[in-house]
Amino acid sequence: MNKSLFWIGIVVVIVIIIATVMSGIGQAPTGSGTKGDLIVEVPPYGEAATQAPAAPVAASVKEFTIIGSNYSFAPATLTVKQGDTVTIIFKNNDGFHDLKIDEFQAATKQIKAGAEDSITFIADKAGTFEYYCSVGKHRQMGMKGTLIVE
Fold first, then answer.
1. Is the backbone peptide bond immediately before 75 cis, with ω within 30 degrees of 0?
2. What is the reported pLDDT for 14?
3. pLDDT recorded at residue 140
4. Residues 53 and 123 sit within 8 Å (Cβ to Cβ)
5. Cystine design at 145: which of 38, 76, 99, 121 (Cβ 3.0–4.6 Å)?
6. Higher-confidence residue: 119 or 24?
7. Domain range spanning residue 51?
């Protein structure tokens, strides 16, 4: 390995980070209600001089409140964009329930009526996914909903 190429790559990454931080200083918030994150792709070792950094990609934070009642969720469908950070606040109105989304390893605690819990995850896969209550046969009795990641 060539150590000078390694150090050149490190210097390029540091310059990109400094430029990114400096370009955001003094800018007023947009007030859009979403949080944008800058994602910079670092090329593999030895390619720093031949590739330009990737353009910034804005990700949103989406927050939903889902009400659980005996054998149903409201709303029954949530839609987000791939890459969004998703927070679901689960409020239980009746019985003993939880909310799970297997594909994102997201699950609330099992909670009794009047309680609430929340989960946060990154919707890093596109598709249609089921969220459901894992208590007893609640899922089979219709306590499920749909998460659409576009």
1. yes
2. 86
3. 97
4. no
5. 76
6. 119
7. 1-23+33-58
CATH of the domain at 101: 2.60.40.420
pLDDT at res. 8: 80
pLDDT at 102: 97
- pLDDT tens, residue by residue, 32-77: 444 455 555 555 655 544 555 555 556 799 999 999 999 999 999 9
Work out whether the CA dihedral 60, 65, 68, 73 comes out positive or negative.
negative
Scored b (16 or more CB within 10 A) or e, 67-100 reads ebebbbbeeeebebeebbbbebbbbbeebbbbbb
Domains: count for the chain: 2
Half-sphere exposure of 36 (CA within 13 A, CB side): 10
Of the candidates 78, 91, 46, the residue with the CA atom closest to the CA atom of residue 147? 78
CA separation for the pair 130, 100 (Å, rounded) = 8
Cα separation, 65 vs 93, whole angstroms: 12
pLDDT digits (tens, 9 = 90+) for 93-130: 999 999 999 999 999 999 999 999 999 999 999 999 99
Contacts of range 40-44, beta carbons closer than 8 Å, 24 or more positions apart: 40/13, 40/16, 42/9, 42/13, 43/9
